[in-house]
Amino acid sequence: MVEIKVGLLGLGTVGSGVVKIIASHQDRLAHQIGCPVKVTKVLVQNPEKERDVAISPTLLTTDADEVINNEEIDVVIEVMGGVEQARQYILQALRNSKHVVTANKDLMALYGTELLAIAKEHQCDLFYEASVAGGIPILRSIVDGFSSDRITKMMGIVNGTTNFILTKMSNEGKAYEDVLKEAQDLGFAEADPSSDVEGLDAARKMTILATLGFSTNVELTDVKVKGITSITEEDLSYSRDLGYTMKLIGLAKRDGNKLEVSVEPTLLPNKHPLASVQNEFNAVYVYGEAVGETMFYGPGAGSLPTATAVVSDLVAVMKNMRLGVTGNSAVSPQYEKVLKEDNEVFAKYFLRLHVKDEVGVFAKITSLFSSYDASFEKIIQMPLEEKGTAEIVIVTHRATLENYQTLLHKLEELDAVKCVKASYRIEGESK
Amino acid sequence: MVEIKVGLLGLGTVGSGVVKIIASHQDRLAHQIGCPVKVTKVLVQNPEKERDVAISPTLLTTDADEVINNEEIDVVIEVMGGVEQARQYILQALRNSKHVVTANKDLMALYGTELLAIAKEHQCDLFYEASVAGGIPILRSIVDGFSSDRITKMMGIVNGTTNFILTKMSNEGKAYEDVLKEAQDLGFAEADPSSDVEGLDAARKMTILATLGFSTNVELTDVKVKGITSITEEDLSYSRDLGYTMKLIGLAKRDGNKLEVSVEPTLLPNKHPLASVQNEFNAVYVYGEAVGETMFYGPGAGSLPTATAVVSDLVAVMKNMRLGVTGNSAVSPQYEKVLKEDNEVFAKYFLRLHVKDEVGVFAKITSLFSSYDASFEKIIQMPLEEKGTAEIVIVTHRATLENYQTLLHKLEELDAVKCVKASYRIEGESK
């Protein structure tokens, strides 16, 4: 093998980073692999477009066949994004016995199991470290680093846009809309931010993490998702007063053989390792039965950080090629998936209510709580400007989701309660 | 291959953890490896000793030959500690073509290069993830996760004992001696704590990290070491006032092709990811040219966390055995080691002086600073109870170590300066 030939699908932010790293780290890569690596063909939409990466125009093509059906190419790197087209290209590349590295979380969350099975069938490697938490080597830490342990909980700040927004809102007391605008101006949020702010992007990553961490087939539709669009300055201010930090947390939890996976705005104690993860940074907290608490922190996006993950995967593929052991990395899931019912999901909650400021209100709320097996850990009551109205903020003890949801519903119905303004899960106080 | 047979050298804290994890995670291990794994022989000093792990007495032996020269055994796990004896056993095991997993930082810091070469020669794997930062999969993150990047800086809180002591001193305003006593009572510090508190333990781990991260042969004697024994409550209090957190930081830094490796009490800005690492937890901050800032956090010691790392290494060995590709993991260092001279080491410093409280003192200090290319970023002056004496705390701008050391010396000689009470490096404000 004189050199290893790589084809790229896409030359956007991540693709340019991949080309740059392969070019500038050539001696380091060759030292590890034992032979040079060369980018041979790159699929682009518009070869004329100006790019901030030096690449010979002869390498560019608008014909995917020149990559995926090119006999010369050993490894295909998919960094074009999107789902269906990327899936077809990857399937074709695998059928042609090409190894594949992808950064595509949408694709892996939806079709990961299928693609890994096809890869195995054709004795190909399919790696996707960059699909979760950009530059953080979290997938290989879960698969290799904790191969001897039983992971019972993962909590991820896996979306940089929403973490940037929540950090700014918390630190500067600004409103959601203003910070979103700022994030868009800085390039941290898309013009259409919905997949980020509504939690879908995080849900895709949690699907991938939960599937690997729990060795089972978690699907995107298994993830309960709630975004950050309705978080107010009041919620953040009360959270702070109570010693909590608000984060959009992807939670994947296992009790016995039963799972829950969710993405929702969550309050963490200020001392929790995830609470100090600021701005656009990502972090994944992993709890293993034997190892206990660990956390992996780093950039969740960006051209070079994400490209690092892609090229590190490429190195892994190339080492396997040199050793003749490709196609052995994917371990099929060990366990059948069993999702928890709502009466098996336990959590503490933060609850903010507007109530009538009159005698007996507290007693009514208290009695409602006890009839649903829920109780208070902390309460703040404050008068509001609106006459005859008070604001009550409650931190509950642990309750089942089923009871808590019924309780919320009954509170809304209570004559003394004007409305439930906000409700957030609290995590990270105990395992 | 019906099953993989493992021999243990040592059955102390970590060894017991290894036996427990192999016993309790049998199905998970077998699923990944494709065959069962069995502990076959365990070298102990005293077979009669009561242990908190269930193990058949017939497996115990006081004769090392029954492990290292036992033809049945495929993999030897060394968790006995110490240097010379462990080294001889491991060498013999490797010569017998047995793969080795070790948790021994002292040994790997001193003889890692030799042992890895012998392992390669005999086509054996030699893994040592547990030797640095216990349960944190930091070595494989550096080797595999950042294989495509160029690491330029690593900062580690890699000694749990000293981090526990500094956390307590900072949070509770207690003196070093009192907290040390407390740590000893809780089992976080040894009866003879010198290897921890004088920074030697951290230096061993930084030797291993720097060797891997910079792909060169860093030796223990290359590490400049300073411990925590002379840190006072005053130092911590001023640090806090200035927005810094004191940590014992192992620093490995590369500028161009020149390296520096040190372990010393260091001030970090409170916002730095390492600043919030509390108590006995460890963390390693890694800066890569492409990936930027990352951090790996978790338990640095303890029976089960450390055993997780050992058994995850064992899984890696066993996967390689099944694939027939053992002995390929060790990549020989790529670069020749060049250490920085003192005039190439740049840093900011925190400096606390007692001076005569009289006219002109400030001018003399200022003029001394400028003659050594050093300048102030922040100054605090406070009168002291002792008549005619003032305390000055200075945060310098960046200066070379050479200039700074001469400056310290000249300050001591200055008539107006009664004494230099403390001096600490500041890191983490820029790359």
From TrEMBL, chains A, B:
GO terms for molecular function: homoserine dehydrogenase activity. It catalyses: L-homoserine + NADP(+) = L-aspartate 4-semialdehyde + NADPH + H(+). CDD domains: ACT_HSDH-Hom. Its EC number is 1.1.1.3. InterPro entries: ACT-like_dom_sf, ACT_dom, Asp/hSer_DH_NAD-bd, HDH, HDH_cat, HDH_CS, NAD(P)-bd_dom_sf. Pathway: Amino-acid biosynthesis; L-methionine biosynthesis via de novo pathway; L-homoserine from L-aspartate: step 3/3; Amino-acid biosynthesis; L-threonine biosynthesis; L-threonine from L-aspartate: step 3/5. Keywords: Amino-acid biosynthesis, Methionine biosynthesis, NADP, Oxidoreductase, Threonine biosynthesis. Coiled coil: none annotated. It comes from the Bacteria. Its cofactor is a metal cation. Residues 350-425 form the ACT domain. Belongs to the homoserine dehydrogenase family. NCBIfam families: PRK06349.1. This is Homoserine dehydrogenase. It comes from Ectobacillus antri.
